[in-house]
Amino acid sequence: MNQPFSRRKFVALSSAAAVTAALGSGCTLQKTEEEVKTEEPKTSVVRFACGQWNCTGTCGQNVYVKDGSITKVEPADMGDDYYQRNICLKGITYAMQQVTSADRIKYPMRRVGERGAGDWERISWDEAMTEIVDKFNKVKEEYGPKSVAGVQMTGNLSIIAYNAPQRMMNLVGGTWISFIGLMSDGAQAYGFMIPLGTSDVANGWDDMLDGSNFLITVGQNIPAVKNGYMRYVLDAQERGMYYAAFDPRFSRGVSKADEWVLVRPGTDPALLLGMMQHIIANNWHDEKYLKAYTNAPFLIRSDSGMMLKQTDLGNTGEAYVVLNATGDATAEPSADVDCTLYGEYTATIDGAQVKCSTAWKLFVDSLNSTYTPEQAADITEISADKIKDLADRYANKGPSTIRVGQGSTRYYNGHLSPLNAVVLALICGNIGTKHAGVSWESGSFDIFGGNLPTGWDEWIKVNTKVEIPDQIPGDVGFEAIRTGNPYPIKALWISQYGIGSQAPETENLFESTLSKLDFIVVSDTLMNYGAKFADIVLPVVSYYECPTGDMVCGYDAHKLLQRSQQVIPPLWEAKSDWDIGRAFADKLGLLDLWDKYGSTVEENMEWSLANNTAPEIQATDWTEWREKGVSRLNMKQPWVALEDKNFPTSTGRAHIYFEEFVEFDQQLPCHSEPIESNRTELAQKYPLTFMTAHPYFSTHGQNVTLPWIREFVPEPTLDMNPIDASARGLKDGDMVRVFNDRGSFKVKLYVNEGIKPGCLNNYQGWWPEHYAEGHHGNVTHYKVNPMQASFYESNWAACDNLVEVEKA
Amino acid sequence: MAIRYGMAINTKRCIGCRTCAVSCKMENTVPVGAFRVKVLNSKGTLEGDAYEGVFPNVSMVFTTSMCQHCTTPACNEVCPTGAAQQREDGIVFIDQDMCIGCRTCESACPYDARSLNKDTGTEIKCTMCMHRLDEGLTPMCSFCCPVQAITIGDLNDTNSELSKKIKVAETTQRLIEKGTEPNTYYI
Hints:
The complex is a heterodimer. Chain A is of the alpha/beta class. Chain A is built from 32 helices and 35 strands.
């Protein structure tokens, strides 16, 4: 069957021969030759890139526009032989229903009633900006320069829109509240950064498709959250790849897997350790790889837990110390010099005798004492035989690849799940190896954002006359708002963040934290729960309305850079994040600074391209890119991350031993029970583990209000196993109260066989408005993890909650 | 040989995302409450997910359900106005100008494939996007399916993608006992 646009037609569509028509400010629409000749004369087709909302998909779209309205969206050619066109229900419903949704914020408005009551008066943009600048100045005078803060989430990942809010706050100084831990994704990145020095580790899906024989997903539900990539898994399975899914829920991903590994929530790290113990006990590990590319042969001092250095032994040089083949201390080996992996050595340091062991010995001894398959079985509730089978398949029936999702990392020590998966891969020589590796949804995004001459800092920190805002983690920021420590924050500008549905401790956050603010600005597209709490609310354009478009860089599968053109003019009085920043700058008298690299998104996009030094970007044919709207980055295909084995860690090697975490007793790969494990004392009172999975029908707080979505997902529901339901006298369809000491909410019960007894799932994304009472965030917590805080930021452990359920 | 359109739906690939249903609504301006394509869960209902079996031996299968474009459709013969018709290439459709919205065909169809469009007062159903097929375009549900689970093509052409898929896979046809001779094959 033909695609609507053959390659030839697609070129015609994009070429200079296409007829263009101006619509709104600087918006260029293109028509096909065919349409001009024969079809409805008023319909135009514009190439657009979807997925600017952090679904990580970034699918190209051909958008049909008639009389300034979107009439249809179709999957666009991706301009690449491998990456196929894709579209999904989220993209379609956004285009067709969210753009014109009744929930859109239409005008700048000022609160006139109580916070959250929804009583507004319409004001002009000029009035709004005047009030914001005046209030910011007043707060700064009273509470100090840092008392004015900004926070954003991932509501728009287009390159300019994403960076605009932070740039805006840099015009006035103050505080910038980072989202890394607050979004509950930090731990996932840490799990890669700790052993590998980078989180940019994703192999292309084509690498799996071409040759992986075993896929493990750890808490990742590919067909729900990455439905466009599921085809690669299905195709690989049809070729013969075996797929095992670690998940306490029978998710869509599990339904396609060959094996459901029904792990107890938050214990994936132990399962991976049990597999490692079995692999090493059977000598299936890759000694050569470990010696050449990891710190496994390095000697560790028993007195300090630190890696032994040549300087400790009175020698010169920065090298670490290993044991040579005969057991004597020597400099770290080159790839062709052998060394001892499992050994001990007594070093003389400053005249004292210090016992040292190789990192490998410490690791293996720890596995043998604590994480045999039988011990791991006790922790995970997966049988020892199954753990051994998984280990055998992983080590001997590969190439084996692992994909780790947030389902396993949203626990208190969630970084241990990807970290242990990486170490499992390392001991089998599987990092930087074809058809193997450990992936998450990172990828080329980092390459784009991180490789300007000084990163985006140069662009963001455009006002050199004020102090650069303090960048603080979410937990520190909320504490500052709540208590005034370490300094008061009294004004907050919230951008691209459905804070009412996507933040921890919802009730506490609004009633005990945000309520303490003197002034709240929310810029958003939809009038959601957080926007209703604002003092000034500003309307933001939908992705289709951004004047002069923006640029979207693909994540893992699409190593593609797409140009998202403006499709329709801004609706009502909505402005783009860029233009909101511009209006703010104008009011501050700093328009010249804001326009330093140009006054439009397009000009700034051009500047960022011209100044990007990454070889992946530099080789792009920009003329072709502007015409077609998509270019493949200059990356080897299929992409195998870290193929050169140059690991950007402190030693230049991949780490299986982490000296920086001795004080937290996490120097070795380990398992740590969830802070609200169902084996803690708290479980006597609250025995059920409460999880908030990503659904297939929404990207975070988007889509959930749309009629076409609600036709098949009418309302939020709580998944509960029949065993738990009958123990509580509950039945399917009951309205129930979910509660713990932090709060409660009411939701309809869905009793089903697809969830492990003792576990509950309530899909994230639903707004407080959609519940009978409260919000699922009320039972979550934002407890600080000092180890993560020492490394980066404490991560919100969104799935690490114990609750009880009763009939409402 | 003349064209005979049919479909193959691969339930092993289907992920139950409902993109087909939503894309159909977009392409054919189907209002809320009416459907030309339904994605049914394991319980055969429209709303939510469903699981078959008892924990932990569970399965989840979705059935994309639309007109089966039967060789002897049960719906057309009951139509009082002659609006319900079939093209020579097998596509079953309703002439929207002739339809009076009496819903007689809706009850005759064993596949629950027809519904009333309250906006137009007429009965609607899957037309296999014949307006697209006639222009050489892929029907919208098939074009938009993220996992390529829907194949539409010529059953009489042994070289069509559809014929090849049906030939190699084990397929079933729904409610074959009704004698409607459906032309939709489930893999």
